[in-house]
Design brief:
The structure is a single chain. The chain is of the alpha/beta class. It is built from 13 helices and 8 strands. The protein has an 8-stranded mixed β-sheet, sandwiched between helices. The chain is globular, with a radius of gyration of 18 Å.
Length: about 325
């Protein structure tokens, strides 16, 4: 379906208003994006899900796009973000829902499954596995020494990191997307780098096959509206992530789940290929698609959709 034909609703949940694509009839599935994205990440999955018989809700999450973007760091704790998601289902009149989650949307989404076990029916996880290993020290450059790490840049440069990325929104978004993809090319040495764009490979002159000029225009418009502060505030709450969910320590994800990632995903390299299988009671399959990087649902649309629909056919 063309972008102009998508149906948007602004839904009030947990004290914020989130703009969402809401379409279809049937059981509910909520799709959660990460950084630096918005609902548009899932543009190739929405229609296949509708055709399978789902009601689809795809928000710009808190801090992104055309949704509310509270300025305070404390407004982006994991429990608040999880409550936003569960509240969408309530607002739409559903007692149960499935999740499809990616990147930061996965970090939050796994916790939604744990915090609301009687509400979440099934989970399709992408890129970021569940774990309980978010060390607050990773948000300090001292921990990394001379090797630049973007988490620390975001957390230690409140205001400055936003200004860096907002100076040229188009270049920032293109650089970040390509540098995390399977088209990134040779890595850039992180020694002595001081900003994220300096530490990232330069994007090619031509857009990759999985991004059109219209796609990039949409992202630029969304981030021109929201700015980068909200999304960066998700990172700035990493030091509170585990202590805010201490009751979840040792608890397993009980819902039927699958996990999909690209072979060249930087997250896969950061985690050493670990998938967190020990944290699940019913992890039905793990799929490593050869070639794609971080944006597996964009870089390998058909293969990703085939895997997703086969799994979700058990719940529609």
């Amino acid at each position: 379906m063309a972008l102009a034909d998508r149906h948007f609703e602004t839904i009030e949940t947990n004290g914020v208003k989130l703009r969402c694509v809401v379409e279809g009839e049937g059981p509910l599935i909520i799709l959660l994006h990460g950084w630096p994205q918005c609902w548009y990440l899932w543009r190739h999955q929405i229609d296949p899900l509708l055709n399978q018989g789902w009601k689809v809700c795809v928000p710009d999450q808190r801090g992104y796009g055309y949704s509310d973007c509270p300025p305070e760091i404390g407004d982006y704790g994991v429990r608040e973000l999880a409550a936003d998601v569960d509240g969408l289902a309530t607002a739409l009149g559903y007692d149960e829902y499935a999740l499809m989650i990616h990147d930061w949307g996965a970090l939050v989404g796994w916790n939604v499954a744990l915090l609301y076990p009687d509400r979440v029916r099934a989970v399709v996880g992408m890129s970021v596995p569940y774990g309980r290993n978010l060390d607050p020290a990773w948000c300090t450059q001292d921990f990394w020494g001379e090797n630049f790490f973007y988490w620390a840049f975001f957390c230690e440069n409140v205001g400055g990191a936003e200004a860096h990325l907002e100076a040229d929104i188009r270049t920032s978004l293109l650089t970040i997307h390509v540098s995390a993809s399977g088209d990134a090319g040779p890595p850039v040495s992180q020694v002595g780098k001081t900003t994220m764009l300096e530490a990232s490979p330069r994007p090619p002159a031509e857009l990759p096959s999985w991004m059109t000029p219209e796609d990039l225009d949409y992202y630029v418009a969304a981030y021109s509206k929201s700015g980068f502060r909200g999304g960066l505030n998700w990172y700035r709450n990493i030091p509170t992530f585990l202590k805010d969910t201490v009751e979840l320590e040792g608890r397993k994800i009980v819902q039927p789940s699958i996990f999909i990632t690209g072979s060249e995903d930087p997250v896969r390299k950061m985690t050493g290929g670990k998938t967190g299988q020990e944290h699940f009671e019913d992890l039905r399959s793990i799929h490593v698609i050869d070639g794609p990087g971080h944006w597996v649902q964009l870089e390998a649309v058909e293969e990703t959709n085939t895997i997703v629909l086969e799994f979700l056919s058990n719940f529609v």
